[in-house]
Every structure is written in structure tokens, then in C-alpha cells.
């Protein structure tokens, strides 16, 4: 609706989002050897009924060693495609575009799931594996020292992202997002905290790996398919990247074929590695506004966007093109419909699937059963 910015469509390349609310990617840690299972089908089936403008699956490893934990989703094998197709179909049945976040955990790999404490797996744990990074610098105390990638390892990883993007197309996804934030592999190349190389992948060339991954992914998907990139707007620690660095990076990514930057923060150093502004509703929105405006690229805002009024204001004020909602959608899968009611949408039930909307519409006119 033209008078409710949150409910105006947005077209990026050949894809139209019916409203500006995006399901933020949230790791579920419930996969087996990278395969989506019953949990993922149930989780996304519930969210697919909520009238979202778009949805994005969790960080999904492009290589086996790129998982954060043994419970992470994978897309390093063609065998993963059928399970992902089922989730895509669930969203498509409700008219919702769906994307997938392509990821490599880098030096934060080989960790236990949050249900087990999220600590690095012990070296003698049969589930453990060797992590990789631009430089042999551990993420934090207790973490293994990663293996610094050589030229062959870098090339193999870039190819892994491209192959994963092709599998995403085969699975029917409508867009892809490259995970370049939170201290994972791509972010660890960009940040001077974790990249101390003095070759063509470090120093003034720290952006090169991110840009080469973006070029490879762009070349692997149809021209009509949007490519997003999640970045850490600031490292939030002394000596780390600042907003100006990401403005420069976003310009290079845009030239490489990235259509939108998804602006998060932090994650490059332990223990939690997330330090920027004190958390409050919309606290990360200024980063999306600045990076999007100064780099001349579309932006998605994140950060405790918990109600329709705030989400609508972000779009109305031109601070972002999309808003990503995570934890609030877990708490309320009907966030979009509640936002429509809150903002005075003339037909909020139209945001729901046909059957649900029909019965809720009838409740307006029929007396309660006695």
C-alpha cells in the first residue's frame, strides 16, 4: 500500500518482495551431516504462513569444514539439494520468495552447538576438524589455531561458494546471501584483527577475497537473481574495521554484482566478539542507512526490530530498503499481520494465506458461538 511504506513491494533485479519484512537467517543447529530434516520443515512451515515479504535460511556451509558446528546446514553436496527443495516449496506455496545464506565459518568452525555450550570442540572429539583462516590466529582462548589458507585453499574456497550458489539455483531459491559478517571466514579476511597477511590477500588487499567470492557467486547464478551480502558494519574492537571501511567495501561489492548489503556488526574477536552500540530497538539501523547511502547500494536493516511502527518508520525514512526480523518472528510468527493491524492496513487478513484469512474475515461478521 502506497500509504504504508512497510507494505509497498520492492523489486530487485527480477524478483519482487510483496512487503519489506524479511525473515533474518537464524542458525537452528539441528542438521545431520548438513542435511535439512523434520525440524527445518516444521520451523519454516510455521513461518511460511505469516505473510513475509521474503525469507532467508540460516548460514549454510559451502564446504564441510565451513560449518560452525556439526549441527549446521550444508550445501557442499548435490545430495543436500532435495531437502532444501522441500523448504523452498513450502515458502513458494504461500507466495513468499526465499533465499539462502551461503557461509564458511573460518576460524570459528569446529564448535559445539549452543545446546552443548557453544565451546570449541576438543581436539580428541571425533566430531572435530581443522579450521582455516587468512592467518594462523585463534579466535580466542581455548580455540584451535586455524590453518592459514594458501593460494590453493583460497581458490578451492571461492569455487566452493560458486558451486554452492549453483546448488541454490537448483534447489529453487530466489536469491542468495553471502555471509561476510560475524568473524566468519570472509569477515576474517576483511578485518585487520584476523588478517595479518602481507601478500595479495592482506594489507591493502584485505577486501580482495570478499570481492572475488562475490564475483564468483554472481557468475554462478542467473542475471535475474539478486545477490545479497551480510557485512559487519564495525568490528566493535580497537584496531578493527569501521563504517568507512565498509562503505568502500560495499562500493566494490556493488561493482562485482551485489545488489544489497545486510548490515550487522561484530563477531571478529572472542568471547562473543559482538560489541558496538548498546542493544536497543533498531540500534543497528544507522549503519544500514549510512552504508547504503554513501555506497549507493540497497541496504537491509537489522537489530531488535520488534514492532510494526519501528519497521515502517525505517522504510518510510529511507534508512533501509528491507528490514530483517529474527527473534521477534520466533516469538510471533504472525508479526506481519500484527504490523498490518498496528499500522491501519485496510485488510490485514490479506497478509495471511487464503484459508486463514477467510476464516478470520468471517469472524468479523459472525456472532460468537454460544
**Reading side by side through the largest sheet, how are the strands ordered?**
3-4-5-8-9-10-11-12
Distance between the termini: 38 Å
Question: What structural class do the secondary elements suggest?
Answer: alpha/beta
Order of helices and strands: EEEHEHEEEHEHHEHEHEHEHHH
CATH top level?
Answer: Alpha Beta
**The CATH homologous superfamily:** Aldolase class I
The backbone outline, from C-alpha atoms, is globular
- The percentage helix is 25-40%
Spans of at least 5 consecutive residues whose pLDDT stays below 50 are 365-370
Per DSSP, what share of the residues sits in E-state strands of 2 or more residues?
5-15%
Over all CA atoms, what is the radius of gyration?
20 Å
Count of DSSP strands = 12
Give an overview of the whole structure:
This protein is an alpha/beta fold. It has one domain (5-363): Aldolase class I (TIM Barrel), CATH 3.20.20.70. It is 32% helix and 14% strand. It has an 8-stranded parallel barrel with strand order 3-4-5-8-9-10-11-12, surrounded by 6 helices. Helix 2 (81-93) links the parallel strand 4 and strand 5 (98-103). The longest helix is centred in the middle third of the chain and has 21 residues, at 151-171. It is globular. The model is unreliable at 365-370 (pLDDT under 50).
Task: Give the gist of this structure.
This protein has helices spanning 38-48, 81-93, 151-171, 185-190, 208-220, 243-255, 285-295, 308-316, 327-331, 335-342, 354-363; strands at 10-12, 15-17, 21-23, 54-61, 98-103, 132-133, 147-148, 175-180, 227-232, 260-264, 298-301, 322-325.
